[in-house]
Write a structure and sequence with these properties.
By secondary structure, the chain is of the alpha/beta class. It is built from four helices and eight strands. A three-stranded antiparallel β-sheet has the order 3-4-5. The protein has a three-stranded parallel β-sheet with strand order 6-7-8, with helices on one face.
């Protein structure tokens, strides 16, 4: 499908992960190249030198970090909309396992992650999920 070997390598190193239909991007320093190449696939995410390409268009990632576990669930949409109003196109979150597994072996409140991701998708925000 991808003919240029560097594009294939960039895609394999910087694969787009999907969780509930939300794109979570893993960007690795190893994906950087010093020389440019001109083949950009029509869809997906590619790192080319210092540039990001998303669905065949040059893409500038503007992200802010949000700790969903410190925000009341009723405010998830509001906080994501505020980030979007500031010009951000993505939100970075991490799973605080100490919050979800207060007692070893008993994982709770995973629906909070799911709800947050669903709201981010509805608001058309990318998620960098860690």
């Amino acid at each position: 499908q991808l003919e240029h070997p560097r594009v294939a390598n960039a895609v394999s190193l910087c694969s787009v992960m999907r969780y509930l239909g939300i794109v979570a991007l893993s960007l690795f320093h190893a994906c950087r190249t010093d020389d440019a190449y001109s083949v950009v696939p029509p869809t997906g995410f590619v790192v080319e030198g210092d540039n990001f390409w998303k669905d065949g268009e040059l893409f500038t990632l503007r992200s802010g970090n949000l700790h969903y576990f410190r925000v009341p669930r009723a405010y998830y949409r509001d906080r994501i909309q505020r980030m979007k109003a500031l010009g951000l196109n993505s939100v970075s979150i991490y799973v605080a396992w100490n919050y979800h597994e207060e007692v070893e072996g008993q994982i709770t409140r995973m629906e909070e992650i799911t709800e947050f991701l669903e709201i981010a998708k509805a608001e058309e925000m990318l998620v960098l999920f860690r």
